[in-house]
Design goal:
Helix content: 40-55%
CATH superfamily of the largest domain: MTH677-like
Order of helices and strands: HHHHHEEEEEEHEEH
Strand order of the largest sheet: 4-3-2-1-5
Structural class: alpha+beta
CATH architecture of the largest domain: 2-Layer Sandwich
């Protein structure tokens, strides 16, 4: 048992370290004592030599201990490196989330209330922290701001791999697009201007009703935000030859759903009247 313990002590470097430190301590003691007893040395020279000796012995001790414990230090360094690599791999997503959060903060990409798209998800920013951003989701259709009623939690690591598209800022207007398809039995190209006027009137009624609900009283004068925006109606054809109306307007996000329904109803009613009038005219001619 004593032989095994002795071999372990010799292999561990404890005895060699103790011997090195003891030898250095003895050298410092003897040399320091000799310098203090030397009558021919000025006090300034003694202090200089003592300081130099101390520094040299400390350097020798560091180099000697490193050489003695080199195998153990090499093993420890390899273990520490393996642990660091494993930690980075395990916490990769967490580190990327913190990095994405720093990117968002430094670039001021968006704030609470903005309307953004990240990684194919669109919505209004409800909240964010160091790890995630919480969105109130919009429909996937490009240009639509109708809410789905769901909330989406997006990790900030997406900011490092996907571009952020800011579609509107808090309190501002957003560009909303939707389309309607009709049978080609009425000349919608000639009625485009009238359809735009009908859509504008429908939006004005929706905006007035929204202002009344928000203020608790009829809106007498409109501010810049309450003023109805311009509405553009484009007439085209689908792949199967039907008429396709694309309606574009700018509005507050909370008004988009009601405005789209009102405009679609007014346009649908207008086109239905055109089709009915055309059928009546054809019957009279026949």
């Amino acid at each position: 048992m004593s032989e095994i313990l002795r071999e372990q002590l010799l292999q561990s470097g404890i005895l060699a370290s103790a011997a090195l430190l003891t030898a250095l301590f003895v050298i410092r003691f003897l040399v320091g004592r000799a310098l203090k007893r030397g009558e021919g040395f000025p006090p300034l020279v003694v202090r200089r030599w003592t300081a130099s000796l101390r520094n040299v012995l400390i350097l020798v001790a560091i180099v000697g201990l490193v050489m003695i414990w080199a195998p153990q230090l090499r093993t420890f360094a390899l273990s520490l490196t393996a642990f660091a690599v494993a930690s980075v791999i395990a916490m990769k997503e967490l580190i990327m989330c913190f990095s994405g959060s720093a990117l968002r903060t430094l670039s001021r990409a968006y704030s609470v209330g903005d309307y953004i798209e990240i990684g194919g998800k669109r919505g209004e920013v409800m909240d964010f922290n160091l790890l995630v951003t919480r969105l109130r989701e919009f429909e996937k259709q490009d240009g639509s701001f109708n809410r789905t009623g769901r909330e989406v939690i997006l990790p900030h690591s997406l900011l490092l791999s996907s571009p952020v598209r800011v579609e509107g800022h808090a309190g501002g207007r957003v560009r909303h697009v939707f389309s309607m398809t009709f049978e080609p039995d009425a000349n919608l190209f000639a009625e485009r201007a009238a359809i735009e006027e009908a859509a504008l009137a429908a939006y004005a009624g929706t905006a007035a009703g929204h202002s009344k609900r928000q203020r608790g009283a009829p809106a007498v004068s409109r501010t810049e935000d309450d003023r109805p925006p311009s509405i553009t109606v484009s007439v085209g054809t689908s792949d199967i030859g039907k008429y396709r109306l694309e309606i574009v307007f700018y509005s507050k996000p909370e008004l988009v759903g009601d405005a789209e329904r009102a405009i679609a109803s007014r346009i649908g009613d207008r086109v239905h009247n055109l089709r009915t009038a055309g059928k009546v005219a054809v019957r009279k001619e026949s």
